[in-house]
Amino acid sequence: xxxxxxxxxxxxxxxxxxxADFRAKAYVYDEQNNKNPKRNCYVKLNKYYNDFRQGNxxxxxxxxxxxxxxxxxxxxxxxxxxxxxxxxxxxxxSVDQITQIIGVTLSDVLSVxxxxxxxxxERLEKPVVLFLDEVQYDSKWAITLKTIFDRSKKVFxxxxxxxxVTLQTxxxxxxxxxxxxxxxxxxxxYIKIKDNKFEIKGLSGKLRKAxxxxxxxxxxxxxxxxxENEINQYWMGIxxxxxxxxxxYGTLPFAVKLKNEGLVYDQIKKILDRVVSMDIAQLxxxxxxxxxxxxxxxxxxxxxxxxxxxxxxxxxxxxxLTLTQVLNVLEKTETVLRVFPYGAHATQVxxxxxxxxxxxxxxxxxxxxxxxxxGQNTYMGKLLEDTVGLYLTRCxxxxxxxxTYDNSAGGADFIIRLYEQNIILEVGxxxxxxxxxxxxxxxxxxxxxxxxxxxxxxxxxxxxxxxxPLSHFLLL
Length: 476
What we know:
The chain is of the alpha/beta class. Helix content is 51%, strand content 15%. It contains 22 helices and 14 strands. The strands form two sheets. The protein has a nine-stranded mixed β-sheet with strand order 6-8-7-9-10-11-12-14-13, with helices on both faces. Strands 2-3-4-1-5 form a five-stranded parallel β-sheet, with helices on both faces. The longest helix has 26 residues. It starts with a helix and ends with a helix.
C-alpha cells in the first residue's frame, strides 16, 4: 500500500469515526427527535451481540441480507447507535463508498484501522465491533471478513448486503457466518413505523399456531374466535384504508414517510433498476444483451402470475435455458418468489410455475407508474396474493415447509406442506367462497382449507375449511 493511499484511508477513517454517531442518529430519530421504532428482528440481532459481550464468542459474524430498500441500513444504524458502551471500539463503514468513491478495498481500510487501534486484530485487548453496510460492493468481502473472523475472537461483525451476497459465499465462509434475512415489513411493522402503534404482545404467535398447527378446521375456527377480542382491540383507531396502502407500498420502510405516491413508485423503480444493473450484472452470469431484457421479464411477471417460460422465451427471442437461469437469479436476489405446481418432481418441471413478487410494492409500481397492464380488481387481487405469499414465506421459514399451488382448473392458490400434512389456502380480494378449496380437496388430501378474504370469520358447512378475514391474517 502506497503512503498516499494510506494517508487517504487514514483521513477517511478519522472522519468516519468522528461523524459516525451523528450520521447514525439520522436513522435512529425522526424529525421530532423521537426514536424510530425498531424492526422485529432487531431484538434477535442485538441478543447475539449481547451474548458476545458476555463471553460467548462462537457467533461473531452476522450477515443481514435483503433486497434494496428493505431497511438494512436503518437497522444497522440502530444497532450501531445502541451499542455505545465503554471499553468497546466500533466502526461503521459504507462499503459502497469505500470502493466507488474512495477507490480502495475493504481489506485496505481494515488494515489501516488496525493502526488507529494501535494493535493488530490478533492482539486486541478491547472488543471491536464492525458495522459494514453493502458489503457486496467489494468483490472480496467474504474472504476479507472470514480472515478477520479467524484472526481474533474479540471482533464482532455486523454486515449487510443485497440478497445476492448469499450467492457469493462458499461453504468455508458459511460455517462462520449467521445469515439473517430481512424481509419486507409486516402490516404490524408498517403501522408501528407509521403511527408508533405497537402490536399486541403474543398475538402473532397465537394466531400462527391456530392457523398452521391446528388439527382440524373446527380447531382453527375456535382458536381464532377466542382471539377476536384482541384482534379487534388492535384494529381500534386504525383506518381500514391502511390495508390497501400497505399492500401498495407499505412493505418498504422508506415509503412509509413519503407523502407523494409518485415519488414512492419512482424510488421503487430505481431499486429494481439497481438490482438488474448492479446486483445481477455484478454476478457476471449474463451478457449485457440478456441483462437488458430483464426489465421486460419483470414487466411480464407483473401482468400475470402463472408464467410460461417457453412462450416468454419465444417472445423475447432468447433461449429457454437462459430465461430459466434469469428467473432463478431473480428468485435468489429475492425479487420474485417462485411457487411450483403441486406434484412429483417431473410434474413440477413440466408444468408452469407461479411467480409472485417478493414485495407487492414491486407489482404496484408496474401498475401505477409504468402502465395499467391489468384491471383494477385483478391488480388488487394479485397484490393480495403477493402479500399472502410474503406472509407465508415469513411465517414458515425454518419450519421445513414447502409451498406449491394447484395448477388444475379452478385449483387453489397455495398448498402448504407442513409437518407431513397439507393445508390448502385460497386468496380472494373482496368476498370469497370455498369453491377452489373444495376443488383442490378432491385431488389432494389435506388437514383443512383456509380462505383469506374480506369475508367474516366463518367455517363451511362440512367443517373442512375456514374463511380468515384479511384483517386477522395480517396480524400473523
